[in-house]
Amino acid sequence: MPQDLDKLEKDALSAIQAANSSDVLEQLGIQWLGRKGEITALLRSISAVPAEERPAFGQRVNSLKNSLTEAIERRRTEISAGAGQASSQIDVTQPGRLMPRTHPHPLRETIDRIKRIFIGLGFEVVESPEIEEYRFNFAGLNYPPDHPAMDEQMSFYITDEHLLRTQTTAVQGRVFQNRKPPMRICTIGRCYRYEAVDATHGHTFMQVDCFAVDRRITMADLKGTLEQFAQEMFGEVETRFRRDFFPFVEPGADFSVKWKQAGDRWLELGGAGMIHPNVLRQGGIDPEEWTGFAFGLGIERMPMIRHGIGDLRLFYENDYRFLEQF
Ligand code: FA5
């Protein structure tokens, strides 16, 4: 019996020493010292030991129990100290990993410039929704009932009454709902059209729309505002107005700037004109007393001109090799 106990102690101690986690140690504790453990079973078997051997046997089992309990405690302390040691091995003097330097996306940067310029010219920037009501996107803007732009083929309808706005000009009706002139308003955001995508057209693109309503606003205010905008956005640049038609302005014009990097060709930035009396009237504004101008410009085309970028799709591909260059 004593030899058996010596061997048992030796095996148990080496298992405890080999334990490399507190979970393993826990299991060993249960195996040796738990209620159904081997030491407990030995203590229970004492009645089977001859009476004269019992005191010595009892003492031996108790000392075994103490030795295993202590060994488990010792190993537990070692393991938790070891865990602490691992974290202290992190070298806090090592230089950190450098994150790549970032900068605003060229469209973000353009939007910030646009805002700064128009705020400087006295416009107030407002938000307007991308999911727009038919009455603001089209009906309130004097579209004749059969105008092709309202066709489902040109627009993304969500319900009969709601569509993804095709133009930020939709902001006018919203503002007329709860404001009285005089006013100078600017809004910037995404527009959506069911359109063949090419280097200067996307199905998703951004516009800025501005309008001003006041007494005695004339075409000269419109031209002056757009020319000032172009000089601030592009520096010295040639601009051009040509007669154009939009249902919500009369007279209407398109506005282009000379794109030097693309062989001196004209690139249309947007449309403009004097707000149609019907639009003012639908907005509850008396066109005999008030007049207004409005314009809407494509945003992607501005950094294209400024940086000589030939294709607006590049702005949406998130290719780091492209974005890195700004
Ligand atoms: C309009 O959207 C009118 N709402 C502009 C306007 C506002 C006229 C107020 C009068 C008064 P147009 O469809 O031409 O007009 O678009 C204006 C500009 O948005 C275009 O010149 C172009 O720069 C940009 N644009 C239009 N469609 C796209 C497209 N698919 N992809 C990229 N840019 C576009």
How would you characterize the overall build of this protein?
By secondary structure, this protein is α+β, with helices and mostly antiparallel strands. The protein folds into 2 domains: 2-87; 106-323, BirA Bifunctional Protein, domain 2. The protein is built from 11 helices and 9 strands. It has helices spanning 2-18, 22-33, 38-44, 54-88, 106-120, 134-137, 171-178, 219-234, 277-282, 301-307, 320-323, and strands spanning 124-126, 131-133, 162-164, 183-192, 204-214, 239-244, 249-259, 265-275, 291-298. A 7-stranded mixed beta sheet has the order 1-4-5-9-8-7-6, sandwiched between helices. Strand 7 (249-259) and strand 8 (265-275) form a beta hairpin. Helix 1 packs parallel to helix 4 and helix 2 (22-33) packs antiparallel against helix 4 (54-88).
Helix-strand layout with pairing:
Elements: H1 2-18, H2 22-33, H3 38-44, H4 54-88, H5 106-120, E1 124-126, E2 131-133, H6 134-137, E3 162-164, H7 171-178, E4 183-192, E5 204-214, H8 219-234, E6 239-244, E7 249-259, E8 265-275, H9 277-282, E9 291-298, H10 301-307, H11 320-323
Parallel strand pairs: 1-4
Antiparallel strand pairs: 2-3, 4-5, 5-9, 6-7, 7-8, 8-9
Helix pairs in contact: 1-4, 2-4
The structure holds adenosine-5'-[phenylalaninyl-phosphate] (FA5).
